[in-house]
Write a structure and sequence with these properties.
- The longest helix has 20 residues.
- The strands form six sheets. Strands 1, 2, 3, 4, 5, 6, 7, 8 and 9 form a nine-stranded mixed beta sheet that branches. A five-stranded mixed beta sheet has the order 10-11-16-13-14, sandwiched between helices.
- Helix 1 packs across helix 4, helix 5 runs antiparallel to helix 6 and helix 13 crosses helix 18.
- It is globular, with a radius of gyration of 31 Å.
- It folds into three domains: about 190 residues, Histidine kinase-like ATPase, C-terminal domain (Heat Shock Protein 90, 2-Layer Sandwich); about 130 residues, Ribosomal Protein S5, domain 2; about 240 residues, Ribosomal Protein S8, Chain: A, domain 1 (2-Layer Sandwich), CATH 3.30.1370.100.
- A hairpin with a 4-residue loop joins strand 24 and strand 25.
- With about 625 residues, the chain is α+β, with helices and mostly antiparallel strands.
- About 35% of the residues lie in helices and about 20% in strands.
């Protein structure tokens, strides 16, 4: 079989198959070109999901007649002035997008330089190029694509319905808009405008938060934590959501490297590591993080779509992301997302609407009794010793964990705080009113305990409303943070295996583990080399218990090191065990608490990091503003 050179048209169609997966890919390439051209506003129009028509207009620097004729040739670009693939500072640089589009569609480009009097236009249809013609155009460039994939009809069979293709293009626009808040963006189809984002001016963080709130919904802006950190040559900025603002998938995690939207497994793993102690494994936080570094420290020329990157020092990148995010979450203190209260109010409003539609009748057919009184334990007149006296900053013995044993005198069957029927006479409204007058709400944002509801929920009065606390979830977080604090101070204890276990691995995997043996020993795992393709495990973290599977643990660690260069698997297991111990060591639901105990729990929550959510990402409290409560009762 003889060797022959492929026709130029076929070469361009092959390139188009790599670059243009769907209409959204064409939109991405053209919008990136507009951004590289210095545009301050970019407008995108689509019809039939991009199959029949795509137009991208910008007010960038534009192109001359000569440049217009050259731009549709393969590997013609203005973005590599020094022919250096290491120092890439633009979004596009391959010079493949326009000729690839022209090879599979009907392409027209009209452009005018900012200071020029004349505009020029060129057409490409299925790889056939026309001559450059005079045209009318404002300064900037307009690219129109008609009949996408008409020259490769087989590709049309793989496209989804118009609505789906349009949503992919909208996602592309949103990601690029997040990275460039100073640029205005709009996206429309034949019926409506799907996206309209005006340019934001002022401070970068302020402008970026406005843009993120516009793209990711207002609730993100209300519950976002600022991230701003540096390490060596790396800079990380952006916003991350509170753990209680989460979703069932990672679609709302936006990651950028030098302004380029990327989908990188290492970065996603770093985010998971930062939130591993605050969310269940099937829940994902909302965030937008922007990583900046010298161009030579990252390879963006890994894939034609340019969504994948490779870092020269992956461990440094991961460490910065995990550390910066954890610091921001710790600074949030006891905050929980406002979406928690909004969700509760929404459910209450929906329940009331259903009752009104049903004629205020419940499932049993009887009218709803608004006077029905729940089982409430009011604060008793007799106060016992403070249950949290062993915890900082309340003083006492720092070595004692705030476990459930502290509540023993008040358990069921003992001298528990009695219910309404038993203690109604001991509750003095006048005394409580006088105490409320001297309560410093500014110093104690979670308010003063007023009652315990169904022996599980603490009702507290704040300056602007009420707070409802899940006592088990809240105490679970307090116990976990105390355990982590002690572990950090005393180190991870290990237990020696009665019989050291030999684990056989690939040689590279074994070598990586032995190289990190010192770090692993700090986490309680002691191992050493045992020949070229094996390690011997002598000690495992004591917290994992007697049933720790050393072989499975080591294999997971080997996989983690191969993929990310980190010992995340061991850390996750340790954190998971700590969380389980904290759950069993915290005050249980159904435990009656007196006034002093409830207030001690509130005060400890106020000074404990992450106390706004339990170890599984669920909220520990809900805050309802007085204005919201009044709306529920139609007083506003």
């Amino acid at each position: 079989m003889s060797i022959r050179r492929l026709p130029e048209t076929l070469v361009n169609q092959i390139a188009a198959g790599e670059v243009l997966e769907r209409p959204a890919a064409a939109v991405k390439e053209l919008v990136e070109n507009a951004l590289d051209a210095g545009a301050t506003h970019i407008d995108v129009q689509m019809r039939d999901g991009g199959r029949s028509y795509i137009a991208v207009s910008d007010d960038g620097c534009g192109m001359s007649k000569e440049g217009l004729a050259l731009c549709i040739e393969r590997h013609a670009t203005s973005k590599l002035p020094s022919d250096d693939l290491v120092h890439i500072e633009t979004l596009g640089f391959r010079g493949e997008a326009l000729p690839s589009i022209g090879a599979v569609a009907r392409l027209q480009i009209t452009s005018r330089e900012k200071q020029a009097e004349d505009a020029w236009s060129i057409r490409v249809e299925g790889g056939t190029v026309s001559s450059v013609q005079p045209a009318a155009c404002n300064p900037g460039t307009r690219v129109e694509i008609r009949d996408l994939f008409f020259a490769t009809p087989a590709r049309l069979k793989f496209l989804k319905v118009a609505r789906t293709e349009l949503s992919h293009a909208e996602d592309v626009m949103k990601r690029l808009a997040m990275a460039h808040p100073e640029v205005g963006f709009s996206l429309s189809d034949e019926k409506r405008t799907l996206l309209r984002l005006p340019a934001n001016s002022g401070d970068l963080f302020e402008a970026r938060l406005k843009r993120l709130s516009s793209v990711m919904a207002r609730e993100f802006g209300e519950n976002a934590l600022r991230v701003d950190a540096e390490r060596e040559y790396l800079s990380l900025s952006g916003y991350i959501g509170l753990p209680t603002l989460n979703r069932g998938n990672a679609q709302h995690q936006y990651l950028f490297v030098n302004g380029r939207p990327v989908k990188d497994r290492l970065l996603q793993g770093a985010v998971r590591g930062a939130y591993q102690d605050f969310l269940a494994r099937d829940r994902h936080p909302l965030l937008a993080l922007f990583l900046e570094m010298p161009p030579e420290m990252v390879d963006v020329n890994v894939h034609p779509a340019k969504t994948e990157v490779r870092f020269r020092d992956a461990a440094l990148v991961r460490g910065l992301i995990v550390g910066a995010c954890k610091h921001a979450l710790a600074e949030a203190g006891h905050r929980a997302s406002t979406s928690v209260a909004n969700s509760a109010l929404g459910m209450l409003e929906a329940a009331r609407n259903r009752q009104e539609q049903d004629g205020s009748e419940g499932r049993s057919g009887h009218a709803y009794n608004w006077q029905a009184r729940p089982s409430v334990s009011y604060p008793s007149g007799r106060l016992s010793e403070t249950i949290f006296s062993s915890q900082a900053p309340l003083g006492g013995n720092q070595s004692t964990l705030p476990g459930a044993e502290s509540f023993a005198p008040h358990a069921r069957g003992g001298e528990a705080t009695s219910g309404l029927a038993e203690t109604g006479s001991s509750w003095n409204p006048q005394t409580e009113a006088r105490e409320a007058e001297h309560f410093d709400h500014a110093a104690h944002p979670l308010g003063a305990a007023r009652a315990q509801y169904h022996e599980n929920y603490i009702i507290a009065q704040t300056e602007t409303g009420i707070v409802i606390v899940d006592q088990h979830a809240a105490h679970e977080r307090l116990v976990l943070e105390k355990m982590k604090e002690q572990m950090a101070a005393q180190g991870m204890k290990s237990q020696m295996l009665l019989l050291p276990e030999v684990v056989e691995l690939e040689e590279d995997a074994a070598r990586r583990l032995v190289k990190r043996a010192d770090e692993l020993s700090e986490l309680g795992l002691v191992l050493e080399a045992f020949g070229p393709g094996a390690v011997v495990v002598r000690e495992v973290p004591a917290i994992l218990g007697e049933r720790a599977n050393a072989a499975a643990l080591v294999m997971d660690l080997a996989d983690e090191l191969a993929e990310l260069g980190e010992t995340l698997a061991l850390k996750e297991r340790v954190e998971r065990v700590l969380g389980t111990m904290a759950c069993h060591g915290s005050v249980r639901s159904g435990r009656r608490l007196n006034s002093e105990e409830m207030n001690a729990l509130l005060r400890q929550m106020e000074v404990t990091p992450h106390s706004g959510q339990c170890n599984h990402g669920r909220p520990t409290y809900i805050e309802l503003k007085l204005t919201d409560i009044e709306k529920l009762f139609s007083r506003r």
